[in-house]
Amino acid sequence: MHRIERDRARFREIVRGRLRADLKKYLSTSELLGRRGEHAVTIPIPQIELPRFHFGENGKSGVGQGPGEKGTPVDGEPKDGEGAGGAGEEPGQHVLEVDVELEELARMLGEELELPRIEPRGDQALVADGGRYSGVRDTGPKSLRHFRRTFKNALRRTIAEGSFDHAAPEVVPLAEDERFRWKKRAPKPDSSAVIFHVMDVSGSMGREQKDVVRIKAFWIDTWLRSQYQNLEVVYIVHDAVAKIVDQQSFFSLRESGGTKISSAYELLLELVRDRYRPEDWNLYPFHYSDGDNWSARDTERCVALLKDELLPRVNQFCYGQVKSAYGSGQFKKDLDTALAGEEKLVTVGVNDREGIADAIREFLGKGR
User: Fold this and answer.
1) Is the C-alpha dihedral spanning 254, 295, 344, 360 positive or negative?
2) How far is CA 208 from the centre of its chain?
3) Distance CA 228, CA 221 (A)
4) Where in the chain are the domains?
5) How far apart are CA 118 and CA 114, in angstroms?
6) CATH number for the domain formed by residue range(s) 189-364
7) Does residue 343 come out as left (phi exceeding 0), alpha (psi in the -120 to 50 range) or beta?
8) How many CB atoms lie within 10 A of CB 43?
9) What distance in Å separates the CA atoms of residue 230 and residue 218, rounded to the nearest whole number?
10) Residue pLDDT, tens place only, 144-170
């Protein structure tokens, strides 16, 4: 058994090493997104095959001999898309899939990007029902019956009544003998947080831009779940009008209307006031857009909402601008100019997938 555990531990170290080596690749691809479960993510790891010599006749002509230009198919060999289509007997490439706990994946992310742990602000913590079943009481469900205490009470009662027979000892507990385990309450703080993923779904946000947003959201969720015991995620989409949607709709919707960013900020403020009060929640809005807004007046409205209403209430507000062939990128410039010096506002521009890791580091590297 010790040898099995030792081999298993060695295997997990190999897997961790492979993950650390490939983590930068996973940070810029959507390979893990469809493999996430409730507590773990499935990581595909190709097996390493050692090269081997095979003895026998090659059965092929010499290298580079005969007529024809580079790229011309050789007679007798199938072209792309052709072939018999039957089952073969040669082995294919094997891929080993390993389940990795999300907490461990978050730890690797923190080490790779040098992310500090988040300290929940002020008293933003809910009280969870902690404690242990170390007490005993007279009533309770049968599943919590304390057998030893129940038997001792029944034995004492049987002896006191004079009905105990040493030659044929028999103890039958009655209802009055039963004792049950009882959980002594020990309330403990349980930090709670909510993530607001807000995205522009107007026609200028294409599939590539949404993939970049999806990858960033995956890693942001993974990290924040490792920092908070209780975490909720809210998805908001907007073009000229904002609305709450589920996760699947968030990444698949595409509207053809214009873009009015203030509609999303107003809906966000309504949620913070009504459902996610700052006294009870740590708030993390993440807004993704290509930088287009329908008018300068609406941008002024967004700046006012941020400065007067949202930034005082949230832990941090993050705006990620994804480069698009149709987006002007003006909104980030306006925010940086109007709200320069606001510590709770983080704005990042992402030109392509290679910039995702730097954006995540900027978003999560403040420790708020």
Assistant:
1) positive
2) 20
3) 11
4) 1-49+94-101, 131-185, 189-364
5) 12
6) 3.40.50.410
7) alpha
8) 19
9) 17
10) 888 888 989 888 988 888 888 888 888
